[in-house]
Amino acid sequence: MRAIDFKDDSDQVADNRPLLTFPNPQQVSLSIRASALVFSDPQSQKLLSFIERVAPSNATALIMGETGTGKELVARHLHSLSPCREGPFAAINCGAFSETLVESELFGYERGAFTGAVGSKAGWFESANGGTLFLDEIGDLPLSTQVKLLRVLQEREVVRVGSRKPIPIEVRLIAATNVNLEEAVKAGRFREDLYYRIKVVPIQLAPLRERLGDILPLVRYFIAKYKSRLHTVEPELAPETLRLLHDYPWPGNIRELENVIHRALLVCDGGILRPHNLNLPAIQSVASSREDEPVESTGPDTWPLEKALSGLFNQEPAELYDLVNRKLIIQAYEFCRSNQVQTARLLGISRNVLRTQLKHFGVID
Questions:
Q1: Domain boundaries, the chain
Q2: Conformation bin of residue 134: beta by default, left when phi > 0, alpha when psi is -120 to 50
Q3: Are 213 and 42 in contact (CB under 8 A)?
Q4: Per CATH, which fold does 2-206 belong to?
Q5: What is the full per-residue pLDDT of the chain (365 aa) written as tens digits?
Q6: Residue 226: other Cβ atoms inside 10 A
Q7: What CA–CA distance (Å, rounded) separates 135 from 141?
Q8: Does domain 209-292+299-315 have CATH number 1.10.8.60?
Q9: How far apart are CA 97 and CA 103, in angstroms?
């Protein structure tokens, strides 16, 4: 198993697993969205081999995957293995700027180019010259900027806003998206020529729910990471906790898992991490177990019941069976307006069994 990790002196991790660290002080980034990308699952190991095979080519890459799957970490790993690794790594979220600002942010501007431009400023392409520029959420770029980006990639030069002088650049572009760009092309929201220009090396990151072999190594990694920060002991994982971790579909992927483990360590006591410490939505943990099952076209919808039961399982209340049975009998009895015959028919039991249950729960004498 291998993991990509970014650490500084204040983040010491007691972990003997091999980590890929990039301490280059020239690296520039607006944000780091996930702090570890573990390659333990066979699917992940296969992807890692592909990444390391194509990285030295210096070709433009498009990383596709859901939010929180570690797209920026993969981009950094590509940068570390590429011929331009001596240059800076710059990361920018294309959706973080308004349509009127994104062009000047990417390509720079000259003094007087627009109101408020009191001086010249280099854009992100110039800042990343000799290195790698990571454009996250590239699907958010307006069409007018997409045209100019395509020209930059083709001509290997930028023209600042308010200038006519081209500036040569040597930058490896890595783009990322969590939307289907092919659908965006069909809808006219993304240029087809740009799509094929950035998709020289397509890299598809699977969601965490499809990489079950990565979940436990990630959990242990984050436990080791945060126990040192919180100055606490490493808790044991209860068997039911392990099951829940694997059953939950992790819609937020690695980022969500990290936050869940961080919180769990804050509230855990007794040295054992239990399901209720994770505080996971009950409906999600049920949904994952049903995700691959065929959908029945007939029959009652039991999802609300399963959701409620899963929530109770996470809470681990005392005498759970009696609690659930009592609720079932009494609510059915009230629904049938205290009619024992109708209640028995609704529950599919005899009237004698129903009367015994009602007496047991003190509903009737």
A1: 2-206, 209-292+299-315, 320-360
A2: beta
A3: yes
A4: Rossmann fold (3.40.50)
A5: 555 554 333 333 333 323 332 333 233 333 334 455 678 899 999 999 999 999 998 899 999 999 999 999 999 999 998 876 678 999 999 988 887 789 899 999 898 888 888 888 999 999 999 999 999 999 999 999 999 999 999 999 999 999 889 999 999 999 999 999 999 999 999 999 999 999 999 999 999 999 999 999 999 999 999 988 888 888 999 999 999 999 999 999 999 999 999 999 999 887 899 999 998 886 444 444 444 444 444 456 565 676 677 667 767 777 888 888 888 999 898 888 888 888 988 998 888 888 888 988 889 98
A6: 20
A7: 10
A8: yes
A9: 9
Amino acid at 254: I
Which residue type is seen at 338? S
